[in-house]
Amino acid sequence: MAWWLKNNIRMVQNNIRDIDARIDIDKHIQWLKDLGANTLQIGCGGITAFHPTELDCQWESPYMKGDFFGEMLEKCHANGIRVIARFDFSKTHESFYEAHPDWYFRSADGSPVRYHDTVATCVNGAYQRERSLDILREVLTKYPVDGIFFNMFGYITFDYSGNYVGICQCDNCRRRFKEMYGEELPVKEDIDDPVFRKYMEFKKITVDEMLTKIHNLARELNPECAVSTYADTGVDIVRNESNSAVDRPLPFWIYNSSDNVGEIEGSYEDKISSNCCINAVDLPYRFMGVSDSLNQIRLYGDLAAGGSLDWCIIGNFEDYHDYENFESVKKIFHFHKQYESYFGHFSPKTRILVVKEGSRKELCAEYRGIYHMLKEAHLLFTVVKLNALESHIKEFDEYDFILLPDVHQVSEPVLDALKQTRASVIATGLALEEQADALQALFGISLKEKVTDVRGTYLKTDPADVFSDFAEKKKYWVFLDGPYCGMELGEETRGLLPKVEKARFGPPERCYGHEETDEPMMAEFRNKNLYVPWNIGTLYYKLGYDEFKRLLLDAMSSIRTLPRLFETNAPEMVEIFFAECEPSVYLLQMINMTGWNGMTFFEPWALDGMEVRFTGISPVSAEVMTEEGLKPVPLEDGCLKCPMKKGQLYQAFKIQV
Fold first, then answer.
1. What count of Cα atoms within 13 Å lies in the side-chain half-sphere of residue 391?
2. Running along the chain, 657 residues long, what does each successive block of 10 average in pLDDT?
3. Domains detected in the chain
4. CA distance linking residue 651 with residue 646, whole number of Å
5. What three-state secondary structure class fits 323?
6. pTM, 2 dp
7. String of b and e for 366-380 (b: at least 16 CB within 10 Å)?
8. Cβ-contact 45, 21 below 8 angstroms
């Protein structure tokens, strides 16, 4: 088995600066050992070479004396620490520009993108397509690295300050796009433009082509070298990040780590997830860390979802300016080291599959809202990326529900499997709107024209036998906001949630005249599948009204019992993970996020009476994982009492069945 597939990585990434080529390497390694790291990811080449290079396409750090990277690698290996060499081919030092202008990105006006003393390169230029391979060949031939990682790989449309620079218009991009599609390059990103959609395909094809070349080169020169970047083609370790940004639109995505890890663990058997928990509050503020609670939530999310541990700071340890999070990183790394045989190889017995649309980032709000609903309801689920879904077709019948939040189109093999599966298919957020045949086959509906003039519209929670939670609470109307499509229903489809037309808006004296209609805003097909022609997940994600979650879960419950392996009185903001980690052994993990108020992370609450009652398995014993080792805890009729102290963010139990 390749070393990375053991999935027991505890990695620190030092994003080193030119000046760090002069640090005390022995002290650096001692820091890594104290933290409990078994892997270091550190700068090697690209923008700056941290090793002596014989190539005329790299700029060496002027602060380096001798061979910084080579010495770091040798001493790490002597201390049992693997090393992944970090490269960044997105830019070069400006000294190469005059001699090789064809290497570089061009804005619409033909100008390059300069940032300080660097210039942005292009995926289709000779630097990325040829010279990058020369750089890798030099490193892989000279050094026994354990892995190679590429930062900012692919097509970059923003500079480091976040300024939009547009679609590259260099001659190489123009020529290749013309050869492949017979079209001129688009100059504007517009998903409704068919030429831009071709450009999105063009980007994937050309990036995948380079990643495949890199992977083949690495395997040829060093079969034990893992390839890693923020992609899933030609890589062994899929990188992602849990990070923050001061200008990022709210709401804050609290499940960032478990989401990032879960989509890789659920989608691929031959890759592992390395979700990097960025210590910094933002790129311009790299020397201040996020709150300790958030840092722990991110790392525990990596651990609990089945990924490796991955944590990053800028520069070296000695002159870093914020050590607040170091102790908790050390605690979590050492906990993982103590129990690593139980982690990284989970077999979740989930009965809900959520499909994640990976190519349209702007659509993730619908997915996130559904994700949030299921997490708060303590319903276990598996995430599979849309581009990996065909490889999971044979598993469809293992699920009770397959959810398609804002998945606009599926392949024919996937559609055929969805038609035949025993699972109930739930589609939300105008899913499959580009496939009229799929809508008819799966839901017995056709969509009418999209309606955008919505504000003031309501949904009537009828019929009461479906939306029973609302009948008990005597809540009859729920507001609708955002675009929707009306539906024509076939004979086998029942309409739910009739629309209440908006009335006059103004002073209270004039607010009347709402008309209850028969037009359904949810469709139930053959008492099996559900279609929601509006953004129920997005509304929950952005606004948080519990009614949207209750509408969906009520409707799902009306067609099939919601699958649970356990019942719990845990608060909604306790994230629970439950999976088999070896035959007849399960791991129950809890992350206590009750200290999060939506903006700030405070110390989590004490949860004195929390318990879990197992309904899908028959446990015979339970042990809690502590720093002192596994300690038995009582099980009473399949019920585990699992209180958490004030300030306790995480706990894990080994359950024997």
1. 10
2. 96 97 98 98 97 96 97 98 97 96 96 95 97 98 97 90 93 97 95 92 95 96 97 95 94 96 96 98 96 97 98 96 97 98 95 85 82 98 97 98 96 98 97 96 97 96 94 89 97 97 91 94 98 98 97 98 97 97 97 95 95 94 97 94 97 97
3. 3-342 (3.20.20.80), 352-559 (3.40.50.880), 566-656 (2.60.40.1180)
4. 12
5. coil
6. 0.96
7. bbbbbbbbbbbbbbb
8. no
